[in-house]
Protein 1
Amino acid sequence: MKVARRREAMLQAVLNGMTEVSALCEHFGISEVTVRRDLRALADNRLILRTYGGAASVSTHAPEESLDERRHSFPAEKEAIGRAAAAHVAEGDTIFLDSGTTTAALARALANRKDIHVVTNNLLVVQTLATTGVPLTLVGGEVREPSMSTLGPLAQLTLSRISVDKAFMGADGVVPGRGLCEATADQAWLKECLMRQAANIYVLATSDKLNRDSQQHWAPIEGPWTLITDADASHAGTRAFAGMIGLTIESVRVAGSAAA
């Protein structure tokens, strides 16, 4: 296959979710050196982004969704993810619930738990848990209306003074090798600060957010983590994460869906 044609085919493969060097080697029957050379050429032409161990697609940064849009997108999937995440919360845990409507779904699944301590910057979580008797700590800071969450220097300072057993993270997108995608640098930095203070990291993401880089700010994920999603193993977004070291993927079943 000629170089130009092979690189065009490789670009399409990356755009379709085949982002790991090893998978591209096997798919095209070529050496790792050749794959890396082709990926570098595509990245130089700003057609893809190079990542550790592979590549990611380049997309136009989309307008951030409003809170109302977030509330009404994938509600059944978010509830299923929330219930699955709640099963990981053990008696005596101190947990952090990040901003977002999917972590708010987790809060609803925890509403009867009195044996845990919830720390959060998510005002939707506070709205759900404040009157339930669940021990609750709100991290202060500047209120961000699109996500109804707090952030900024005060929130960062608070997080530097605490640690949690488990952090349950939301995101606008999650991309292998790059981490969590967010609309602002403050959001991304707060998530990075939080993940450093957590013994265990769980990312809660509906299938539309997998391998999605709709925003331009990133919080890398360091160390082992668990992705809880409604996408099954055959989904292109899930396949993009195949073979990642330190990652556990948990696919949940959604009522009325064939996903498992």
Note: The two ends are 39 Å apart (CA to CA).
Protein 2
Amino acid sequence: MDSLGLDRLVEVQALESLLEALAQGLTQRAWRLVTAESCTGGLVAAACTSMAGSSEWFERGYVTYSNQSKSDALGVPPALIERHGAVSREVAMAMVLGALQCSGAQVGVAITGIAGPGGGRPGKPVGTVWFAWACGQDLVETECRRFSGDRTQVRAAATRHALQRVRALLESLS
């Protein structure tokens, strides 16, 4: 096996381990996860549902790529998007809270960003990704990260980070 194949195997095993910990944290509480994704285009939901038994803890995923879909599916106010931009703390928070409200899940994650290669601008370069995690309507955490690499690498890094932080959120509640 060449080094690229070995790196890919290690990455897959790490993701599987992360998903197992996430599944355990959710099922112990009889909670379900909802995702609201823009730049990752459903990669977080796909990772979750790649695991056998995920129907026990994964509720649903929303892919809200356009601004209109963020408003239509998740109730994000168009004025909020206009004021702050789709890639912002405020929109990520509105996305995760809307996903929780629409789904009835107990835990949610939202991702909105600029994966590239175009779309960046001063203050929001390619690789800028806003995240929001929520447990109910009260506990909401947000974070902005800047990932390097091409479109595929940015999306993969954002997916891993989103899942790692859901797991950390669950562990913090123990």
Note: The mean pLDDT is 93.
Protein 3
Amino acid sequence: MAGSDVILLDLWISVFGARVRIALAEKGVKYEYREEKLDDKSPLLLEMNPVHKKIPVLIHHGKPVCESNIIVQYINEAWHANSPPLMPSDPYLRAQARFWADFVDKKIYEGAKKIWTTKGEEQEAAKKEFMDVLKVLEGQLGEKPYLVGERFGFADIAMIPFSVWFYTLNKIGNMNIEKECPKLAAWVKRCMERESVSKSLPDAHKFYELFLEMQKKKGQ
């Protein structure tokens, strides 16, 4: 496989890919970006991630690393000499960062999916459940600038891409996430002030347009 020492197999709309793009930007790592298609996966993707056959995949010196949160941790370790560190130096805070990244993986994706795949009473219940999850994150933020400690890091990288979905959820669920969760909204703005974040996330309005197109194709 000729070319760059660092290759990212990704999809522009992917919140999971955005995590990796943010981490690479934070560490100042140059890489070759290769856009994948959901309905026509490349032979390279199938070769590099034969288990899940999903993006993102980071290929470093020809070796693949899969699953976004694992990739972010790998980037932090592989380029440990590059500032800033993405993980706290304190073991307890590192454990906390992993806990909240895991919380995001288990609660945010599925919670949002429930809202846009249901209607009526079921959707109302899904909306309440999702807001409760966001309020747990608000509680974790408290008066801190970031989810774990005083610095932008692993837990924030895990969560911030999902903020792109808020506009769509507000529209289809008749919600106002920013009003309901002001601390989380302030945290989103704070994160978006970082170039690594603002340049790595897809546009929220484009995501909404794509979502509507997908719904039309499904006949919903």
Note: The first strand starts at residue 6 and ends at 10.
